[in-house]
Amino acid sequence: MDISLVTPAGKHSRTGNWTTAARWSRILRALGHDVTISEQDERCDTDMMIAIHAWRSAASIARYADARPDRPLVVCLAGTDIYRFQHSHPQETLSSMDVANALVCLHDLVQLSVPEQFQNKLRVIHQSAPPLVTPRQPSIRTFDVCVIGHLRDEKDPLRAAFAARLMPPESRLRIVQLGRAHNQHWESLATTEMAGNSRYVWRGEVPGGEVRKLMSRSHAMVISSIAEGGANVVSEAIVAGVPVLASAIQGNVGLLGSDYAGTFPVEDTEALAALLSKTENEPEFLAHLRSQCGRRASLFSPAREAGAWKRLLLELTG
Known about the structure:
The chain is α/β, with parallel strands linked by helices.
């Protein structure tokens, strides 16, 4: 099939939307399909459309649904679709859900937040991650905890840095953060925090190889987001064997499991500080988190993700 893959992120972006589009295009091509990636599709002449983001790609989705009502249309629900835009911009977001033949979601708890009339369209496809090329070698001199993701409101990106300030003097904790500041405000906040917090280092946006290198040297990873649709960085950490300390939101719990021991309440600096301290000072707890993550790792294999896409395309095309 000739498939149009629409994403609101350009090809030079390192955002999650572009990373997802690039990985899905490789999967679909390996399954024998022709794939064209664009930020908006105005041709409407392909056999199928897959659109990432119900709200941001709403114009392309509406055009395709009008022009090709007999052809499959798949919409991937981003975290902002589920937890923000269906409430703040319901007309466009819910319309995209309505015209889609299938709604791809990235974690197991999405059904709790999607309108009941669209539940039968939901298909969970976990984002895969390759294993680390080299064995993990966590740092010895410091207890490094990584934070990976762009600095923007939804990510609550400085929560780990704030928690690090509460550590006792004897702690070896160091927070190392990677990711581009979404705007000047976040850049200023991160720079100021780094100047006044000896336990915090912000390195900005780096290539994917540097992200994996940091993971291999980290004892754990923090994801403190207020809302997530199922962050690929969580699956990357799980596959890499890096225990995750996560805010207790649906997007994180839906990937890590409802019994996962390494969660903390959203925006709760003291709770995260306590969790970081426990992770640093109780080896059996760190091992327990690693074991829990290990039991989830098979969910995020490339073969499993490719199989899910193959089944969905067969379902839609017969």
